[in-house]
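TICKET: design request
STATUS: open
ATTACHED STRUCTURE:
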């Protein structure tokens, strides 16, 4: 009998403890929500949990025209004629061939 009474007391104490914990967690959750709302009111830049001027990630796919422009620009930049270098006759420095001009080697004729 004594064991049963002891167990009943323990169960009642555990139930009371659970009730107190549940009330405490409700109060704590309410305080956390209240602080969060107050913080949002104080900080006008924030809307919810993200910044209003924060970039979207991942960004949307580029338009077809933009993709064509990017690819065309890349092809122009890696064109072999643009990448080829030759020595400058004046400075003796390697320079892209598109920046060089041909030297006219015509000799002056008599007279």
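STATUS: resolved
RESOLUTION: sequence designed for all positions
ATTACHED SEQUENCE:
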């Amino acid at each position: 009998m004594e064991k049963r009474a002891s167990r009943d007391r323990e169960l009642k104490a555990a139930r009371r403890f659970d009730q107190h914990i549940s009330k405490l967690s409700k109060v704590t959750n309410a305080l956390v929500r209240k602080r969060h709302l107050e913080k949002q009111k104080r900080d006008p830049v924030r809307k919810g949990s993200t910044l209003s001027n924060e970039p979207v990630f991942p960004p949307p796919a580029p338009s077809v025209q933009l993709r064509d422009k990017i690819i065309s620009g890349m092809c122009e930049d890696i064109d072999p004629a643009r990448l080829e270098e030759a020595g400058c006759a004046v400075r003796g420095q390697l320079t892209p061939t598109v920046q060089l001009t041909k030297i006219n080697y015509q000799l002056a004729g008599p007279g």
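CLOSING REMARK: The mean pLDDT is 77. DSSP finds three helices and four strands in the chain.
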